[in-house]
Design a protein that fits this description.
There is one protein chain. The protein has about 200 residues and is an alpha+beta fold. The protein has 6 helices and 4 strands. A 4-stranded antiparallel sheet has the order 2-3-1-4, with helices on one face. Helix 1 packs antiparallel against helix 2 and helix 3 packs across helix 6. The protein is globular, with a radius of gyration of 16 Å. The chain starts with 12 loop residues before the first strand and ends in a 6-residue tail after the last helix.
């Protein structure tokens, strides 16, 4: 049975995720992490889109990508990132064969029941995912550590993170937004949310 066609829309936010071939923990390897980060950087130079979150777990990754009107589609962006990661990793390790298990999965944030709340929970879900897997003790200390961009004014990491527009609706100042955003983390942890992907 053929897989259903994706909704390819512009000007919306996609939560994208993909797993390594055979569910192997390839993304724990230094070469794979480096390849993935370089692929994102190359994609950000090649295409116009907003990356609002990115995190590596052990056998999968999460990206939060906002496509822009009249720019590249999510399909092209994801194809580029996954292909460059596999190509660079296989060349560096002299490995052959597929790196990824299947095509990427995705969900459009704006098509959920309560998009703004869904997004804040999703950001904390992505940030806490490596913690739940035992890869870090605090989401602020993850390998990519995108969440610090939402907590520290003008914080930069090795890839460009664009704060999502919904974040700006949490308050009138950065301090107010952070305070509200941290309250959502507390609620997230108390509820033990684990089921976005």
């Amino acid at each position: 049975m053929p897989k259903p066609l994706r909704k390819i829309l512009q000007g919306v936010t996609y939560h994208c995720y993909s797993r390594c071939q055979g569910l192997n923990k390839l993304l724990l390897e230094k070469e794979a992490k480096t390849s993935f980060m370089e692929a994102i950087k190359m994609c950000q130079k090649k295409y116009k889109f907003e990356l609002s979150a990115a995190e590596i777990v052990d056998n999968h990754f999460h990206l939060l990508i906002r496509t822009l009107e009249n720019e590249e589609t999510i399909a092209r962006i994801m194809q580029y990132i996954k292909a460059r990661t596999a190509e660079t990793y296989n060349r560096a390790t002299k490995r052959k064969g597929p790196f990824w298990n299947e095509r990427y999965g995705c969900k459009i944030v704006e098509h959920t029941k309560n998009p703004k709340r869904y997004l804040t929970d999703l950001l904390w879900y992505i940030a806490h995912n490596p913690v739940k897997k035992g890869l870090s003790r605090n989401p602020r200390n993850n390998y990519i550590g995108f969440i610090k961009c939402y907590l520290i004014r003008n914080y930069e990491i090795s890839i460009k993170i664009t704060l999502h527009p919904y974040f700006y609706e949490l308050g009138n100042s950065f301090t107010e937004r952070v305070k509200k955003f941290l309250s959502y983390e507390k609620e997230y942890v108390q509820r033990g949310l684990v089921a976005y992907a």
